[in-house]
Design a protein that fits this description.
The structure is a single chain. Helix 2 crosses helix 3, helix 2 crosses helix 4 and helix 3 crosses helix 4. By secondary structure, the chain is α+β, with helices and mostly antiparallel strands. The chain is globular. It has 2 domains: 81 residues, Winged helix-like DNA-binding domain superfamily/Winged helix DNA-binding domain (Arc Repressor Mutant, subunit A, Orthogonal Bundle); 168 residues, Beta-Lactamase (2-Layer Sandwich).
Amino acid sequence: MTRKKTSTQSSAKSAGMRSKAPAITRASAVLKLLAKCGNPLPLQVIARDTGLVPSTCLYVLRALVDEELVAFDSDTKRYTLGAGVLVLAQRWLEQDDFASVAQPLLDQVSGEFGVTSLGVQIFGLDHIIVVASSAAGNNFQISARVGSRFPALISATGRCIAAWADCSDSELRARFKRLRWDDPPDFGEWLQQVEATRERGFAVDEGHYMRGVTVLASPVWSVPGQPSHAIVALGIGSALKPSDTRRLGKKLDAQARALNVHFGCGRD
């Protein structure tokens, strides 16, 4: 769902200047690039796209190969993610209670409404990551893979995050301006929708983030404070009647509340 190629190089450089552990920042930039690209990459491309000096990039790659987090093909001289990443991901999935508890609820929503359902983890106002997914058996589906990463304030999930965010409208406006939408909503209108989300317990984005796609989301608390997760539903806008959308929103709200009870937390 990426709108356009982001500047990995500039972000890696700025992150490196802020980090107290630059070696970790460099390794993280390399791993994220290889994960995002999906195809084997040569040293020159990795160095260019991460903003690293080639000699430094080679040092990082060799260390990652030694740790089996990156694999190197000596014939093509290209690098890809290694099997060690899968081991780490599997260990995380085994320890993440939210994904396992939310999965049957997501399956229920997908089967009942014919939509794609997601469980996402929220990382403040920065970004969200898909940690669970369930697709309906329709011929035409909207998909988002586990591990996919999106800006925090985008779409319906963003309205949920903003509704309980501990920040000013001016900070929200600054972040809002950096978001990429197919049909950007007016900020004032968006703030009203954020307030409505706080009152009814779920948010709706009708074609703003992705044209022709309706997205609904409801926040979940697994720890006290601000929402830590959200459950999300995506469907083709023309296939969801207004009554279906309201019913789906209430379903997500009920399921989010059930998850809150499971984790012993709730909305303020």
